[in-house]
């Protein structure tokens, strides 16, 4: 299975390193249309959603990602990637891919200095609590009826799934826990 990591900006290498640890997975740095067309699943990494969103437009990559979503390929947005997928962003007038029925708030936990690590309970994903790193993270304020909430932190939604779309506020590529990767790729 070829798993792409959108390689425009943000924590690309870290995701690739995690994917290398999974049997049967070929990680692929994807930054052009041809590569994106040939992946079986895609990770949209954390970084800066405004910058990545602008590049998606400039390099004309939006349609190929939307097509991938429509074909049923699993797509997972972590942090900025979650913002890119959202249909609604409460504190930004831009929508990027607009494919997931979630309403997100950017920088919901304050500035870079307010970044933190915690443990989250996520029964669908792992029987143990998962370490989660939040860096200028968004959270989800509201979800559409087809979205399943996977985890909350202090009452706010920080992980969710809508069919083949997965979103996390935190950065699983920065911890040693592979459970969300396995959940995303159906390897549990
Ligand atoms: N604050 C960033 C944004 O709004 C997301 C931060 C991250 O991906 N770590 O795009």
From TrEMBL:
Q: Which reaction does it catalyse?
A: L-glutamine + H2O = L-glutamate + NH4(+); aldehydo-D-ribose 5-phosphate + D-glyceraldehyde 3-phosphate + L-glutamine = pyridoxal 5'-phosphate + L-glutamate + phosphate + 3 H2O + H(+)
> CDD domains given for it?
GATase1_PB (cd01749)
> Which GO molecular function annotation, any one, does this entry have?
pyridoxal 5'-phosphate synthase (glutamine hydrolysing) activity
Query: Hydrolase: present as a keyword of the record?
Result: yes
Biochemical pathway: Cofactor biosynthesis; pyridoxal 5'-phosphate biosynthesis
Q: Which residues form the active site?
A: 79, 171, 173
Reply yes or no: does the keyword Transit peptide apply.
no
InterPro entries assigned = Class_I_gatase-like, PdxT/SNO, PdxT/SNO_CS
- Which keywords does UniProt give here? Glutamine amidotransferase, Hydrolase, Lyase, Pyridoxal phosphate
* One Pfam family it belongs to: SNO
What does the record give as EC number? 4.3.3.6, 3.5.1.2
List ligand-binding residues for L-glutamine. 47-49, 106, 135-136
- Physiological role: Catalyzes the hydrolysis of glutamine to glutamate and ammonia as part of the biosynthesis of pyridoxal 5'-phosphate. The resulting ammonia molecule is channeled to the active site of PdxS.
- Could you describe the subunit structure of this protein? In the presence of PdxS, forms a dodecamer of heterodimers. Only shows activity in the heterodimer.
Stored PANTHER family: PYRIDOXAL 5'-PHOSPHATE SYNTHASE SUBUNIT SNO, PYRIDOXAL 5'-PHOSPHATE SYNTHASE SUBUNIT SNO1-RELATED
Family note? Belongs to the glutaminase PdxT/SNO family.
Provide the protein name.
Pyridoxal 5'-phosphate synthase subunit PdxT
The taxonomic lineage of its organism, from the top, reads: Bacteria, Bacillati, Bacillota, Clostridia, Thermoanaerobacterales
Q: Quick one: which gene encodes this?
A: pdxT
